[in-house]
Write a structure and sequence with these properties.
Largest sheet of chain A: 12 strands, mixed
Structural class of chain A: mainly beta
Helix content of chain A: under 10%
CATH architecture of the largest domain in chain A: Alpha-Beta Complex
CATH topology of the largest domain in chain A: Fumarylacetoacetate hydrolase, domain 2
Shape of chain A: globular
Number of strands of chain A: 19
Order of helices and strands of chain A: EEEEEEHEEEEEEHEEEHEEEE
Oligomer: homodimer
Number of helices of chain A: 3
Distance between the termini of chain A: 37 Å
């Protein structure tokens, strides 16, 4: 099943994608819902980020290549993280597919993409074992963890470096039937492929991350976890167009503009 | 005006406090709302955290004394932050007054309190000057930024050190008529005063913080900003009771228990 969140007449709706049509529903995909009589064509939709989560989790440094390249750049030896220390991102930064990533006025003008798998939670969960971890997952989507590297490195927190408005493109939809091992993530900048990696080749996979998280934090329906990215991450400037594609999950495409 | 959020029959409501009575409303305090015919006595309420925000901001290291003592402990010279780098906390951790702060099973067993002023946003805001910053504020409440210092220092992020379930007590309500300069924050541990400071004696005050934040991030109605704390912050163990009191805003009291 494929779920899309979209806007009509200033209101957000969820709908089920069936071919090139979207069947509007009342309610939430992971809760009670009923089909309304309304139906729209996918191509006509203004698609919104598929979720505005109660809590927005993000795993950092979660791929080997990414980690090794970061270490090489700073002259460090590669020390892989011992445990999955999950961070947070902020809802103010979420935008849907097609919306512009805006470079803030006082940025030096370069942002970097990070193409990521997004896990969307469908059931309240605490103390899940790795074996049972996927039982709370509703589905998967695509995120672009846009980062202003100067702020990311210089500020004490990631507040603007990773969470300025428009820095979290997400979508286009949520797929519920996904084989993680079959996925491949591709990033294109202005149509040219700049990154390709096996999506599930993580240091801490989805099961481990959920099991670790739920030792301390209750996951709620609608929460989401962004799973990190692999290298390379290149600079984007105003006028660029960035696409993140994950096999079978669609393509998240956003232009970059200056404020 | 004083607003409280509470639970009756498994549903969350907002109400206006008038004396020892609460007038239930439909809608949100910062949006359209109407009085319902229902009325309850404050003493009978199960009070909830006053807000589950779209985005949960938190200013760290925002008082002089706190900063100086932390530096002394680590042998550093005091370097005050040059700018207000705001962090994030997570909604899963929010609890109301009276609810137990739970020490997770595999914690060494000591948590610390941080008594904080909470600013609640009532209007969408971007690019506010310091002069206009307070125009987006709906009201104020009290938060206790409970921290597990071993995890806070050892993990790469604050995910469990500051955001494990129950680590963010908040309440008891929201006050809209507040003179910031008249406020004093007091923390009591098992009835004994352990901390007292001028609430508005911040390095980066509410106006500066909002003005800085809104250069990059849009604030939305219901967002909140926790403003940091001053020293000392002592250990709490299972069996303790912690109270944070801010002049005129009430008292936030929570017991500490082991998981």
């Amino acid at each position: 099943m494929r779920w899309v969140r979209y806007e009509t007449n200033g209101k957000a709706h969820y709908g089920m994608v069936e071919g090139d049509q979207v069947i509007e529903v009342d309610g939430l995909p992971w809760g009670e819902h009923t089909r309304t009589g309304n139906q729209v064509t996918v191509a006509d939709l203004r698609i919104l980020p598929p979720v505005i989560p109660p809590t927005f989790y993000a795993a950092g440094l979660n791929y080997m290549t990414h980690r090794k390249k970061m270490a090489a750049r700073t002259g460090e030896t590669v020390v892989l993280p011992k445990q999955s220390d999950i961070g947070y991102r902020a809802n103010n930064a979420l935008i849907g597919p097609g919306e512009a990533i805006v470079i803030p006025r006082d940025s030096a003008g370069k942002l970097q993409y990070e193409g990521e798998l997004v896990v969307i939670i469908g059931k309240k969960a605490k103390h899940l074992s790795e074996k049972d971890a996927l039982s709370c997952v509703f589905g998967y989507s695509i995120g672009n963890d846009v980062s202003e590297r100067i702020w990311q490195r210089g500020d004490r927190t990631f507040w603007r470096g990773k969470n300025a408005d428009t820095f979290k493109p997400m979508g286009p939809w949520i797929d519920t039937d996904v084989n993680l091992d079959a996925l491949e993530t591709t990033v294109r900048l202005n149509g040219k492929e700049v990154s390709r990696f096996k999506t599930n080749d993580m240091i801490f996979g989805v099961e481990v991350t959920i099991s670790t998280l739920t030792r301390y934090n209750t996951l709620y329906p609608g929460d989401m976890i962004w799973m990190g990215t692999d290298e390379p991450t290149l600079d984007m400037v105003a006028g660029d167009v960035v696409e993140v594609d994950i096999t079978g999950l669609g393509t998240l495409k956003n232009p970059v503009i200056a404020e």
